Amino acid sequence: MTTSVIVLNGRRRSEEEGNAYVTGGEDRMSELPNEIVVSILSRLTLREAVRTSVLSKPWRYVWTRIPVLNFDANDISRVPLGDHEYNKWVSGVLKQHRGPNVDEFRVCYDLDEASSSHIDRWIGFALSNRVHTVELSLSNLNKQPFPDKCYILRHRILGLSALGSPLKKSSFNMFVGFKSLKTLSLKAVKVGDKAIEYFLSNCPLLERLSLHLNFALRNLKVVKPSLLLRYLEVVRCWRVKTIEICDTNLVSFTYLGKKPKTMLLKNAPKLVEEILGNYILPKLKNLKQFVLIVERWSNVSLLGFLVTIKNWPNLQRFVLRLNFNGYRWDDSLKEAPRENMRKAARYRHPCLKVVEIAGYRNACDFELFKHIIEIVVLLEKIIIDTCNPNPDSDSMDGYRELQSDEEQQLRTLVSLGVEFVIVKS
Known about the structure:
By secondary structure, the chain is of the alpha/beta class. The chain contains 11 helices and 20 strands. The protein has helices at 15-23, 34-42, 46-51, 73-76, 83-96, 116-128, 175-180, 193-202, 338-346, 363-375, 404-413; strands at 5-8, 11-14, 68-72, 104-108, 133-137, 151-152, 183-187, 189-190, 208-212, 219-222, 231-235, 242-246, 252-256, 262-266, 273-277, 289-295, 317-323, 354-358, 381-385, 419-423. The strands form 4 sheets. Strands 3-4-5-7-9-11-13-15-16-17-18-19-20 form a 13-stranded parallel beta sheet. The chain has a 3-stranded parallel beta sheet with strand order 10-12-14. The chain is globular, with a radius of gyration of 26 Å.
């Protein structure tokens, strides 16, 4: 028979010694209501929660009832795990789980289609336990996975045929789980158009949907006003051709990637935050916060694009992030037409209060800064960030500390009463 041990103050102790050491001979922690103990363990990493099993006999299986299952390989081992070890760890924990349901289920590890049988079972487990949050992060997002090797979320797991119609009988049909799902985040997971439509139609409580590096997505449709969906992210899904968002209750929409052939965004009265890559600029009257991320590959002037802020008359905060390194999302970026520049010079925005320019570096950006000062009549704060917005990039071309004379030149343009912040590396 193996005796459990616990390490305290650098000395290994038996389970009995550990119990007496921790509690002074009396196990007071075990006297707490069970739901409180489980709630405490849910705030630990899985590794830490499992280790509590050696504290005392009543604690041996408490960790198996926690509703938060976060399988982050960095939390379990300082030494990188192999695929086999990681899959064995996740499957072993799920086999021992005894909780009535699962609130959060997260897998964070570089896995691909070779582990599909394991991942299929994990998803089935989560959905059958009425999961609220599912996150599958199957790739390090700082590198590009091989599209052909990405894990595929198959139709049969959703209880669908290959054509998208419901199957009469399916061991993977987890309708109860879908009814409880509130947050779905899929990174480096190939999910087709039909599967996305199915999630939107069969997850009545779904509020957040995040799709990163999805190489199977072609046409995205979010068109039902009855949806509870509030937050939608589509990031680096390189093969998207059309996006249609109509009659929805979205509050925040993020799209970073190549410009789709068709992008329809209308009748979204609650949308107050939008984050878009490059120059996809729809008209939204209720928008209050807008983040525009521009991949700029030369010293082109962005002045003419300022005229587009008239599309958002109630905008209060505008963030312009200028990236000079990373993925090239659109090879056809050009300077705005001169007519746009003339219109921008005449326009005055009635509500904009906070402006941030991240990635500021050259004379073209000075021209942009100067014009913003002129057109924003109610400006309260302007932020200039001279740091490289992509610090992980090997290239630092064009990024340097703002010189004192350049900084002084900027400050002379700012009116009294306007807060001016310069962020330096």
